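So, can you check what follows?
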Amino acid sequence: MAAIHSPSPTGAPIAAGLSLAEALEHRQKTGKPVRVGLIGAGQMGTDIVVQVAQMQGIEIAAVADIAPDRVSQAAALAGQEVDIVSDNAGLEAAGRRGRIAATNSLDLICRSPAIDVIIDATGNPEAGSRVALTAIAARKHIVMMNVEADITIGSYLAVEAAKAGVVYTLGAGDEPAAAMELINFVRAMGYPVVAAGKGKNNPFRIDAVPADYVEEATRRNMNPRMLVEFVDGSKTMVEMVAIANACGFVPDIPGMHGPAAPRAELQDYFCPKEEGGLLSNKGVVDFSVAKGVAPGVFVIAEMRHPRVRERMSDLHLGPGPYYSFFRPYHLTSLEVPLSAAAAVLFGQSHMRPLPVPTAEVGCVAKRDLAVGETLDAIGEYGYRGFALSRVDSLARKALPIGLAQGATMTRPVRKGELITLADAAPDERLKIVEVRRAQEAMIAALGQGASA
């Protein structure tokens, strides 16, 4: 087995020449597992607690949740026990007893010397901003499952993490990181990526509201609001913008095309108009609503050399010059611990945004909105996500979706209209609003302009 050498920024050893599985096996054998601090014990957090219990060389050391009973329930599913703690001494004592420390304090977990890496599984942009900032300030690696926070302030967080010498990464298993695997594969081979995207998991119903999805959400053990975030397209817009901001891509048109492109014909849809496709540009993000594409992700590569096309034809991948590379699954929360392990063991980010974003998710009103109303959360009754290029977002002064919850309507907006920063004032008390201002100042200092 290859040697383990040199400290990472947080003092943990880096595994040289080992695969991730081998590095985790080494940690298991040496009794030094990667110790994870998890923020949030909802559906995603519970999955992570259970999944980590199946792995070697990594463990959930502590979980923070506003309802400690949820931590106990998650631990029970994983065959583990919980100690309720209020300070670092209690957290470390729980570890010595082989138990998960449960607390309602994210600060305690993020700052504990006993923790190597933080996973944010809150699903709330405001909470995500606080988790990430606290973790980075404490020089902890941070795995963000909170894509809504990432598309709002991720560029700033990634830069701050780099300054602190720690890893900022989106979590493996979600569509953005799964698509990023394919993007990196194609780019490493030297071919341009024409388009990247996913299959939409649910019917696309832009007027969906939680009251109409209580039964389905209950049956699927989901929060109705979270289910609606998928159904009304908001989650798809958020995920595709996350890919765009990590790669320098843009939506080809506002809202993207979203055709019913079958799995076998993705390359025929997501190619330039002059060659029979839908696209006005190359280097775009989009999605398909055709059955058989979800839960997969895809990348369309352009490969024009005659010898390469000959080989691709021999391999039954089509005549080209556009080829579809497809991953037929993503394992959501179950893959996330891999990002935590890679951050600690290799200093590796599976995905992070560029310093200057190229795309934004704005808000389109689901109903008529009146002056004085306070906007609700993503996936509720007031608005849905709508993907725009950064250029379009700046021109239209779109309200970023990560700043929408708690914003006050200052002008009436009719159903179906884009909500702008002239129509709604974000809640200045929120940390995410403050960080967004800092991100825009950072971008302006790079000469790229500001939006919100």
Q: What stands out?
A: Residues 359-445 form a domain with the Type Iii Antifreeze Protein Isoform Hplc 12 fold (CATH 3.90.1210.10). DSSP finds 16 helices and 19 strands in the chain. The first strand starts at residue 4 and ends at 7. Confidence is low (pLDDT under 50) at residues 1-13.
